[in-house]
């Protein structure tokens, strides 16, 4: 399922969905949190790719160190009409431990502000036609597809001009360790129905 209002890069979209699949193979419940990450409007460094890469990398590292039960993230870098950099992000939270997104969002917002004086936009408050921010249970095909629809927005080619030779260069993905294989094995995962073996 893709957002047909934008041009979607197939490779980038495939990476995002495959990453979610790996997380789903490890965690039985995942709570997605979507936020747009911005610099302060007068920040002159917000046009420098290397500086912003370093800052977003450090921010993501910090987010994983805090006891927020974040198990993964997917972030893309984009440019607005003034060539200022911003990021679209999805953080994945262990749904067995957390059911509410806002306390986690508030910590992320504080971390980014302390690092850059920038701000986050809470996408959870938007009334999307397709809600890709619901808790994903392992066998919930509809919730998984809705999250894939949301991920396709991150894979759009618009506002990614510096990366048009290889759009995956604007992508920041967390590492997903293999499942521990403890507990009852899952025999029917939605990933088997959605992801081609070539990805």
Task: Please indicate the percent range of residues in DSSP E strands (runs of 2 or more).
Answer: 15-25%
Q: What integer is the average pLDDT?
A: 87
| Poorly predicted sequence stretches spanning 5 or more consecutive residues | 186-199
Form type: globular
Number-wise, the strands total 6
Helix amount, in percent? 25-40%
Name the helix and strand elements from N-terminus to C-terminus, one letter apiece: HEHEEHEEHEH
Distance between the termini: 16 Å
Largest sheet, if any? 6 strands, antiparallel
How large is the radius of gyration? Answer: 16 Å
The number of distinct helices, counting runs of at least 4 residues, comes to: 5
Task: Please give a structural write-up.
It is a single chain. The chain is α+β, with helices and mostly antiparallel strands and 199 residues long. 34% of the residues lie in helices and 20% in strands. The chain has helices at residues 10-26, 49-65, 102-116, 141-154, 191-194; strands at residues 29-38, 70-79, 85-94, 119-122, 136-137, 171-173. Strands 1, 2, 3, 4, 5 and 6 form a six-stranded antiparallel beta sheet that branches. A hairpin with a 5-residue loop joins strand 2 (70-79) and strand 3. Helix 1 (10-26) packs antiparallel against helix 4 (141-154) and helix 2 (49-65) packs across helix 3. The longest helix has 17 residues, at 10-26. The protein is globular, with a radius of gyration of 16 Å.
Please tag this protein with its features.
single chain; 199 residues; alpha+beta; disordered C terminus; globular; 6-stranded antiparallel β-sheet; 6 strands
């Amino acid at each position: 399922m893709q957002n047909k209002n934008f041009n979607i890069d197939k490779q980038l979209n495939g990476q995002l969905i495959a990453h979610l699949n790996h997380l789903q193979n490890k965690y039985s419940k995942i709570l997605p949190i979507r936020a747009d990450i911005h610099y302060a409007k007068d920040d002159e460094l917000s046009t420098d790719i290397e500086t912003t890469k370093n800052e977003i990398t450090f921010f993501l590292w910090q987010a994983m160190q805090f006891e927020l039960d974040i198990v993964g993230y997917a972030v893309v870098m984009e440019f607005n009409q003034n060539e200022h950099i911003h990021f679209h992000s999805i953080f994945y939270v262990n749904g067995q431990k957390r059911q509410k997104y806002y306390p986690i969002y508030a910590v992320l917002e504080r971390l980014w502000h302390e690092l850059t004086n920038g701000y986050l936009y809470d996408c959870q408050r938007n009334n999307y036609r397709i809600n890709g921010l619901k808790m994903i249970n392992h066998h919930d095909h509809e919730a998984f597809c809705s999250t894939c629809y949301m991920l396709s927005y991150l894979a759009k080619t618009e506002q990614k001009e510096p990366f048009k030779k290889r759009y995956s260069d604007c992508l920041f993905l967390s590492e997903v360790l293999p499942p521990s294989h403890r507990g009852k094995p899952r025999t029917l995962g939605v990933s088997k129905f959605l992801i081609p073996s070539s990805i």
